[in-house]
Specification:
Layout (H helix, E strand, L loop, with lengths): L1 E10 L2 E11 L9 H11 L6 E7 L5 E9 L9 H10 L5 E7 L9 H17 L2 E9 L2 E4 H4 L2 H8 L1
Parallel strand pairs: 1-4, 5-6
Antiparallel strand pairs: 1-2, 3-4, 3-5, 6-7
């Protein structure tokens, strides 16, 4: 299947999505994301800088689009929430999304900052009535899902 990578631009003073690139990947759904993880492992798993993405899915779990939220340094990246909200609002037929970023240092553990931005995106999802599925960290061909690593009560502390 083809998954589209988008940029946000302005047309007649209104934000719009523009296809930046198309990527061919195996079919994935939100319950089986191995091919999507493989795609991102090849793309950002070996980078020396941190990159942060949102992947939007339709109600059937097919990926609708990718948006690069930010590109940072070898230690961190700055999350642009306004652009992220625009992407989530503008992507047609979006039902759910995941967050994915790499840790160039190889540490596959969610930091306090990672938990805080995930909590922020959970709030955004609630406001937009879109399902927040998970957050994923990638390093080389390894990954960790936030839903498998973090105790929910610990995470809820940051969400409140």
């Amino acid at each position: 299947m083809i998954i589209k990578e988008y940029n946000i631009y302005t047309k007649n003073k209104r934000p719009c999505l523009k296809i930046q690139q198309k990527h061919k990947i195996e079919y994935v759904n939100q319950n089986n994301i191995e091919s999507l993880l493989s795609f991102f492992a090849n793309r950002i798993g070996n980078l020396y800088i941190e990159e942060f993405y949102i992947i939007g899915f339709n109600a059937q779990g097919k990926p609708l689009g990718i948006y690069m939220v930010s590109r940072g340094s070898h230690e961190d990246t700055i999350i642009y929430y306004k652009e992220s909200i625009l992407f989530l609002k503008l992507l047609p037929n979006i039902y759910s999304f995941i967050l994915i970023h790499n840790h160039p240092n190889g540490i596959l553990t969610f930091s306090k900052d990672d938990l805080q931005f995930s909590a922020h995106f959970m709030g955004i999802a609630e406001e937009l009535k879109i399902e927040y599925l998970d957050s994923i960290i990638i390093y080389q061909n390894q990954y960790v899902l936030q839903s498998q690593e973090i105790d929910e009560d610990y995470f809820n502390f940051y969400y409140l």
